[in-house]
Amino acid sequence: MFDSLKSLGQLGPLMAKAREMQTKMAEVQQKLGDIKTESSAAGGIITVTANGRMEIIELQFSPDAVRLEAPVLADLTRSAVNDALVNVRNRVQQEMQGVAGDMDLSGIQKMMGMPS
To answer: Tens digit of pLDDT per residue, the chain (116 long)?
Structure first.
């Protein structure tokens, strides 16, 4: 019982760290529009740019795209879009991990009975 009360003494510093993490996460969320990745298909016939809000912000077709049949063009476009979204999702995840990575969460783990 007293061991549980000891861990409650760590609650204040943990709450401060949680507020700090929340502030950092809000900063990252504000920067999501600035995170951009680009993907292309068929040697650059199609180029897609996505941002950290998972929005396609640019879609370009080279003049050679008109030579492709519609189903092929559709498949290449879908591939480039999906690749751009995967790339930007990975970048956002790295940013979020960077925020959480410098936080010591061992106190929370101990309170929850998890090994740290």
So the answer is: 556 556 666 677 777 877 887 888 788 788 888 999 999 999 999 999 999 999 999 999 999 999 999 999 999 999 999 999 999 999 988 888 877 665 555 554 454 454 54
Report the alpha-carbon distance of residue 77 to residue 70 in Å, rounded: 10
| DSSP 8-class letter at 94 | H
User: Is 85 in contact with 50 (CB distance < 8 Å)?
Assistant: yes
Report d(CA 44, CA 28) in Å as an integer: 31
- Please name each of the domains of the chain with its CATH number: 2-111 (3.30.1310.10)
